Amino acid sequence: MSSAELHHHAQTSAPLPPHPEKATLEGRNKILGIWLLIGAETVLFACLFGTYLALRGSNMNGPTTEELFQIPMVAAATLILLTSSLTSVLGVVGMHQNNVKKVQLWFGITVLLGAAFLGLEIYEFIEYVHEGHTFTGSAFGSAFYTLIGTHGSHVLFGITWISSLMIQVARRGLTLETTPKLFVASLYWHFVDVVWVFIFTVVYLMGKVG
Amino acid sequence: MATLVVLLVFALFIGAILTGGYNKQMIERFRSHWLWEWLTTVDHKKIGVLYALGGGFFFIFGGIEALLMRIQLFFPDNHFIVGRDFNELLSMHGTTMIFFVAMPLLFALMNVAIPLQIGARDVAFPFLNALGFWLFFAGALLMNLSWLFGGAPDSGWTNYVPIALNEYSPGTGIDYYVLGLQIAGFGTTMGGLNFLATIINMRAPGMSFLRMPLFTWTSFVASALVLFGFPPLTAGLFLVMFDRLFGAQFFEVALGGNPVIWQHLFWIFGHPEVYIVILPAFGVMSDVISNFARKRLFGYTSMVFATLLIGFLGFMVWAHHMFTVGMGPMVNSIFAIATMAIAVPTGIKVFNWLFTLWGGKITFTTAMLYAVGFIPTFVMGGVTGIMLSVPPADFQYHDTYFVVAHFHYVLIGGTVFGILSGLYYWWPKMFGYTLNETLGKWNFWIFFIGFHLTFLIQHVIGLYGMPRRYFTYQAEDGITLFNQISTVGAVMMAVGAILLVLNIFVSYRQRESLVAGGDPWDGRTLEWAIPSPPPVYNFAQLPQVRALDCWWHEKMEGNKEMEPAEPLESIHMPNDTPLPLIMSIGFFIAGLGLVFRAFEVGIVGLLVVIVAMFMRSFKPDHGYHIEVEEIKATEKGA
Fold first, then answer.
1. N or C terminus of chain B: which is more exposed, having fewer CB within 10 Å?
2. For B443-478, what is each residue's pLDDT tens digit?
3. Which N-terminal stretch is annotated as signal sequence (chain B) (predicted)?
4. Which CATH class is domain B33-577+621-637?
5. Is the ipTM of this complex over 0.90?
């Protein structure tokens, strides 16, 4: 299909092709673009991980990682975020079935789970500050809050992004324009989850036993 | 708070004007102005011109800074510009020349040439392309505002902590560096991502990877280095910003911090950065040499693999900038060997250029002069690079003028010669007329001789022991004459640069007699198969590429134009949009707010960015179509 035909297609309500996100050149560019962005973000997080590993022993007068971390709560947060990855996959499945209701339901649950994760993280930060683990108190504190905070801001961005896409789907339905956006947002969301798996391992688990 | 109120009132005022509440014709008058077209363009050719203008503009600043430093060093114990002022000059000279001159000028060439060389109608993300340019410009402007408000950064272009922390650098200088570079860096990362996606996804039918012109190849690898090299800088700049603005302790040793982290992050970015600026120049040289030797590039495939190898090794050698930090003999040896290994692919390239020239039918146009002048100059920079890669020797050279001479040989002898060669080569494609060759040759010889006069002697100054970044020396040091020779050379380079500006001016006046036509150099690659300047859609019909040097191949087959790969039909183009400019203004406001610790203003700026992002996402942008009749009319006119 040429771009002119597809363009015409986008403005009518003809049935979508089987993989609508890859049907246009714009869509394919978007998918490649998000993979490249994920590559760049991986390096960004790698740098923050490196900084954290170099500074995590410098807790000065504040609590150490062993004293600080509560695995059950962090494990709950992990479970929530991983589940949200699954629900975003179900949303994409709904998109491939051209089922607006299913898309809205599962992406809606994804956003709620993401918000719940953020709530737990904010609660956790408040707890830590009460225990004397602050951003300015030690190099460990600075590195910890920067790494986790950068991840948290990515979760916040993902929630906002997916919510705004849900509004667009509600207004315009599933088209050759909205489907690549949903697909790309879901890829981004998986990436944010994968980063958390590393944070859970490197920061929390290794903080308990390493 | 007062600043916030003032800004809000100002914003409401602007808003009233723009929405027509003030004067209904205002917005129409804006839109019909020629400037509006340039401010909102998403056309890669226009963005290329904008990058060239931006890079050229900051080149004036960087050049004046260099001249002022050389004037100070003309006499021993001179009192022209000393101490902190001199530190500001050297910091801004380095930062400006790397980030705001070399990179935008290369991005200019990449924007102009890549889509044409691969047979594409535009880049993969035209909006992102415009955003990348405006972010670069906002960041560069922000940093240069430091001269007027609050003092320029003065910790060198490397901005080492703890000198760059609040304790030793109070005031706003370093904040300008951190925020200006951060904003410009976002733009550069977007540019790199965009070129990668363009080259992977947008190649014309038949344009396989191993048929791409070498400039596209080297830009491809350089873009990958941008994509993976800039995030460490982003991370590092965030850490410095947090330390300076929000009281973090990353680099504060008393609270467990470690200043060496900055050095690592900076050089994990910084070393790939030097390959980011040299690889596209290698590409220009390869295309120009092959074009004007009228031969296929010797060892094309080995050139491609050498480029990939240089890109890969570029990430493995950052610690050779840190031999004197004290990482131990084992680490130093590993990085020394990795560094020396880069000489192998680079050597492959040099020999391939020489073998391309060998037996060629050479025409010495200005572009070719720069390319040929580049080979020995760059080799000299490469040889001193090998010398510096030996750790025991590096302990002697470190932070002396020997290092200054080395990196100017590769950055000017490599990158700047490459940019100038590319400018003379692609100027007719950009504007439809060639630059004046007589003035061009004057420009080359004055600049070339001035360059060697300035920097060859600096090797000796360094071996005599003069440290870099010092603002003075004594008469009894015995280096007065050397420094004076160097300053004379710098003035000569300035004259050379002025000749270039003069040439641009004169050529514009003579443009009627310098009309280029589509193929002024009897070119080999795809960009020469279409009219100059190309129509907005570049290719009326996407071409079918049948060989390496595909345009040359068609000419040898006796064809007057490329074989089309598709029927003539209406072409879909993206709409112009002011949103990239608005987002960059938002970032600029945020940056300025943070520099002055006015966090409300910072938040307002970021809100502008976020609102613009939502506007972009929510407003469907269907673009427009150029109909077949219009294309036919345009093609006939050309």
1. N
2. 999 999 999 999 999 999 999 999 999 999 999 999
3. none
4. mainly alpha
5. yes
